[in-house]
Write a structure and sequence with these properties.
This protein is an alpha+beta fold. Helix content is about 55%, strand content about 5%. The protein has a 4-stranded mixed beta sheet with strand order 2-3-5-4. Strands 6-8-7 form a 3-stranded mixed beta sheet. A two-stranded antiparallel sheet has the order 1-11. The longest helix is centred in the middle third of the chain and has 24 residues, at about 360-385.
Length: about 650
């Protein structure tokens, strides 16, 4: 488009220069404006993604304030609208005490009761920074952090989680995860200014709301930003999360005290409610850097960040007048948005339960179950036929597939670990939110003494996404991915396979991607699960896939990072190979390809796409269609793709995962 605009300007300049030599008054040509509708629809063999999504790309419009819009965003938007209407239905009638609808109704009404919220005030939360401020020693500070965690669910420098042991998933272990960065990843600091701005504003506003003078608050916030920035630069990159050798670091009491030489870790663990002799440290470099800041010289700095984390956790539940002191805005600026946010934050499981029970009708689940079984059967068939696997490796892969648990829809057995105290019984929004967070913290602590449950859900039903958990060998497909915005159960079987099946097949095949193949059928990490010869053969497939994506150009200019996106690319390639293995009929194949291309349609700001190339583990949507389909043999059968077509990739250069 830039070249066309430059050419148009050049032609106008030439017209002006020639006109100056004329004896008559020149007639200036009308500037030509290229309309969206004038852009020709690309042929299937040139750009399949552009062909299928032509109308969406031409007529779509990115909403104000956003960097993209997509069909996946449409699913989220539809789900959010449905959920809000569903909440209103819960509120409109009497609900039996104790069920999810009752909790939704009570919290909703308590949020809208501005008078009671103002009367309650913020004292239940401001008591936390007051206690932080009174700490005279680091030991007192660490004890206060433990109190904040157990009583309010607030974490700051120490963020613990209880997960299955990577090497023995039959037991739970205590993990010290990355510190609470208030929603900011490392890339927000190292690749953009977003992290600096977010943490800076949060800290400054938190301090000013607590009556710190503005100039002083700003100066203290700058120091906090400098500390967090320093910690982030020492932390491991986000894309190494699945690198077990890097993130599975067992520390016993003695080793943990050495790592955190400025902290009495046994006292700290006890303050947080954990009784254990060892901890698995997720990010050792980060821990070392954090430990450097635990000195008396940095005491105020440490206090200020704990205050910022407190306000980050509870700002949505504070009275409007206090929120206005923090940011200049209160709930009444956009009441609908505010109430949706706090409901989804505090009652996402309860909302998900009600949402799932409404979305997951018998018709929907019958279609979804058949689709899932067809995909699993197809994957089984591909494993059986895979030439790079020995008989022993093939058996282990089939055992893993058969032992995989697929959770689809919503958690029908969910029970709230808390009770909402009604307004009639003296309950108020802030106290109920505190109780909710305290209950979930207690639930996390209790997991350390029980066995992992492979049927536990990794996502709520209102999450417009899906996930494969390698540590449990489970796939979770939330109800949001089965909504009408995702697929229509009355559509043809093969259209549904393309639209919704791509997601399911993608997650199933994560079990065998560049990371997943290192885990056994129970989720235990075992890098020697398959024999060395088979691992070497697979490594060649992975190397070829990395090179294949490195050479794929987005907008004919930008290269994809094949190493960064490897596991997701493998899951994409295997998913489409799996879907198209279900049928040989050309019309059916076309429906699969069209549905799969349609689901990835999106409009993006170019600068945003380029930025994500350096940090997103997924390839851009266009590549999740064109690069994948060009490497799928049945794509050529379905559309008679010729060697002269841009979509053509020679057979020897196609990546066949199976």
């Amino acid at each position: 488009m830039l070249k066309k605009t430059a050419a148009l300007l050049l032609s106008l300049l030439i017209a002006v220069s020639f006109a100056s030599c004329a004896t008559e008054e020149p007639v200036m040509p009308e500037p030509e404006t290229k309309k969206k509708t004038d852009i020709p629809k690309p042929d299937i063999g040139e750009n399949y993604y552009g062909n299928i999504n032509y109308d969406y790309l031409i007529n779509g419009q990115i909403p104000f304030g956003k960097n993209r819009c997509s069909h996946l965003d449409d699913i989220s938007d539809e789900m959010e609208k449905y959920v809000y209407d569903m909440i209103l239905r819960c509120v409109s009638k009497e609900q039996p005490e104790g069920n999810c609808e009752y909790s939704i109704k009570e919290l909703y009404q308590q949020f809208l009761d501005i008078d009671t919220r103002e009367k309650t005030g913020a004292d239940l939360i401001t008591v936390i920074p007051e206690k932080i401020d009174k700490c005279k020693t680091l030991d007192e500070y660490f004890s206060t952090l433990g109190w904040m965690y157990q009583e309010y669910g607030i974490s700051s420098f120490f963020r613990f989680d209880v997960q299955p042991d990577y090497y023995d998933t039959s037991v739970n272990k205590l993990f010290l995860m990355n510190f609470n960065s208030c929603g900011n990843m490392k890339e927000n600091f190292t690749r953009t200014n977003a992290g600096v701005e977010n943490i800076g504003k949060l800290t400054e506003h938190s301090l000013t709301a607590l009556d710190t003078e503005v100039t002083e608050a700003r100066d203290r916030a700058k120091k906090v930003v400098s500390m967090i920035n320093d910690i982030m630069y020492e932390s491991t990159d986000s894309d190494t999360t699945m690198d077990i050798d890097k993130h599975y670091n067992i520390y016993d009491k003695k080793e943990l005290n050495k790592l955190y030489s400025n902290v009495d870790m046994q006292k700290l663990l006890k303050a947080f409610g954990f009784e254990t002799s060892e901890v698995i440290v997720h990010d050792v470099p980060q821990s070392k850097k954090i430990n450097e800041y635990f000195t008396e010289d940095n005491f105020q700095l440490l206090k200020d960040y704990a205050v910022a984390c407190t306000m980050f956790k509870y700002s949505s539940a504070l009275p409007p007048s206090f929120k206005e002191k923090m940011s200049g805005n209160d709930d009444t600026d956009d009441m609908k948005k505010s109430v949706k946010n706090i409901m989804s934050d505090q009652l996402q499981e309860e909302i998900g339960f009600v949402y799932g029970s409404e979305i997951c009708t018998d018709e929907v689940m019958n279609v979804a179950d058949k689709m899932m079984n067809d995909i699993r059967s197809s994957c089984r068939d591909l494993i059986k036929k895979c030439s790079r696997l020995s008989d022993d490796s093939r058996k282990k892969y089939l055992d893993k597939l058969d032992n995989m648990i697929i959770l689809m829809g919503y958690n029908k057995n969910y029970k709230s670990p808390f009770s909402i105290v009604s307004a009639d019984e003296g309950g108020n929004l802030l106290q109920n939110v505190i109780n909710i967070q305290k209950s979930w913290t207690k639930n996390t602590i209790s997991k350390l003494s029980v066995k992992p449950d492979r049927n536990s859900w990794d996502m709520t039903a209102i999450t417009a996404n899906a996930v494969y958990n390698p540590y449990m060998n489970t796939v979770t497909i939330p109800a949001a991915m089965l909504s009408k915005a995702s697929f229509d159960p009355s559509d043809s079987e093969y259209r549904i396979l393309g639209v919704a099946g791509y997601c399911i097949a993608h997650e199933i095949n994560h079990a065998f991607d560049s990371n997943g193949f290192l885990f056994d059928k129970n989720g235990c990490y075992n890098p020697e699960l398959i024999c060395k010869e088979d691992r070497d053969k697979y490594k060649q497939v992975l190397d070829n896939a990395e090179k294949y994506y490195n050479n794929y150009k987005l907008l004919d200019i930008y290269n994809i990072n094949g190493k960064l996106t490897l596991s997701e690319n493998i899951a994409d390639l295997a998913a489409v190979q799996c879907l198209t293995n279900i049928t040989d009929n050309k019309d059916n194949l076309r429906e699969i390809f069209e549905g799969a291309a349609d689901i990835w349609g999106s409009l993006d700001v170019v600068e945003d796409i380029v930025m994500r190339l350096d940090g997103d583990l997924h390839s851009p949507n266009e590549a999740r269609v064109n690069a994948v389909f060009s490497s799928t043999d049945k794509f050529y059968e379905a559309y008679d793709i010729a060697e002269t077509d841009k979509m053509y990739v020679a057979p020897e250069n196609r990546i066949r995962v199976w």
